[in-house]
Design goal:
By secondary structure, this protein is α+β, with helices and mostly antiparallel strands. The protein is built from 11 helices and 12 strands.
Amino acid sequence: MATLDSKDVASNIFTPTSKANFSRSKLKQWQPAASFEIIKLRAETLKQIRSFFEQNNVLEVDTPTLSAATVPDPFIESFQTRYIPLTQTMSSENYYLHSSPEFPMKRLLASGSGSIYQIAKVFRQGEAGRKHNPEFTLLEWYREGWDHHQLMQEVSRLLTEILSPHIQLAEPQLVTYDEVFQTVLGINPHTASQSDLLACVEKEGLSNVLEAHEHRDCFLDLLFSHVIEPSLGKFLEKTHSKPCLCFLYNYPASQASLAKTAVHNGQLVAERFEVFIDGMELGNGFHELNDASEQRARFKSDNQARQLMGKSKIPMDENFLEAVGALPECAGVAIGLERLLMIITQVGHINDVIAFPFERA
């Protein structure tokens, strides 16, 4: 399958990028890294997103960027700061810049907001590179009464509406986590033994990356990120010359995070999905867990994993956990806006779509 830089796709894609890249080396440090064509495109994309949700009766909300607690995920590190009061009536306290607006948005859902969305600046430590900036923009939304299958359809509609004026898209693909591992690597990710995973990693030339005793999910993530992900959006339809939206769902239950789990074809799986195009992950969605005791147990497990990795323990967000118990049936998803702009503009680095990326902030 042809990639986004193929001739048949490039002719239909946003064009000023090459000029912006050509002059980048001449820019002074105080000047924006992104061209004004891309800055204007970002504004138009935000307008398009807001119009989509207005037409679909989804309320835009605003929640705090600075919070007393954060996600305890061992693979996400939050920025931490300290509140110092001007008077002695309050003690100083640690606060976190959020990595996602998920927790307060779910508190709104549990309070009766109905379906909501937010466009939020979010922050993650250590994430700087071709597809990462420590500060980036998430479009996050929740649909009350929906499951992840219904949400995948809406994600497809929105992304197609945004992308199709710039890129010729093939029909969306829906494929399970199991199917993609079977197709690309010939293993069942749910039942493969540790020795099977070690053999597969060795076959793919990745044997020196992990220790043999590490959790099987680490091996699955390694195989996924290095072998499978670059092909998503093209691996099943090799005869197509156009990229497509690929929805991957039914992840291992051990990777459920804040999603519900269910039995599918005799196997316990996480009711979550990710969406990719031409090897780029754009978003992550869940059929949201609304069992507070289960969520608390997962957070405790995450903190134990953090401590084993030598990371600090994250305080439990009791406001969020109480809200989880009142959360209505819903599904939610977060889409990275900068990555979406990277696909539209055919650039190779996230800095090209941010006015002042980390190095210029």
